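Batch job 17 of 40 flagged for manual review because the log was empty.
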Amino acid sequence: MALLQRIGHVLTADITKEFKFKKRAVEDVNELTFVDQLKKRRSIYVLGRKVHFSQAYLAELIQEAVRSCPSALNSQSSRIVVLFGDSHEQFWQIVKDVQRKLVAAHVFDDTAMKIDQCMAGYGTVLFYEDQSTIQKLQKKIPFNAQDFPIWSEQTSGMAQYAVWTALADSGIGACLQHYNPSIDAAVSQHFHIDESWLLRAQLVFGSIEQEADLKPTSQDAERFRILS
């Protein structure tokens, strides 16, 4: 839980008790490096609900991960909606209903199966970017007006990665989905989302029911250049 120790500074009494219960003694294990924590993050598609953390703990973990992320000019444009229980299931039912109208009937079964896998998870994190915040910065600094939407995407990407890695550090599987923008209107209406919030991604999480496959990697020579 090394990553949680670094980011979990603001915990409620209930969360603190749970955190201490899960904490491993440093002398009993070799402490993982930050890169080791990053490697834990994988796309886990077969998820379940055997999660041994409270919703309060997970909500605070997700919030702390996002709070710890940088943003352009400290704009803090990311907005997060965490769905548990009925809200989680209602969200994925909305996704299924929308996809049913968009996907050809002869291939919808495959689409429905993928969505059902997501619904089988424990919860979902919706990542939004507040367009009103971006527009204010564009007016304030017109010289960089065209850059702020790009920087907003980078901010959202960092928030997604931070939450995903924090969950992985807790032994929780997750996979990132992108059913936006087709679901945006229905989701906003159902959950009363602010009009200025733009949905960027959906991270479904839960217990790991099937480990990720080995990940193929490109040759380093194709990806990196080290110059001096």
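Reviewer: the log was empty due to a logging misconfiguration, but the result itself is present. Residues 1-17, 23-28 have pLDDT under 50 and may be disordered. Unflagging and moving on to job 18.
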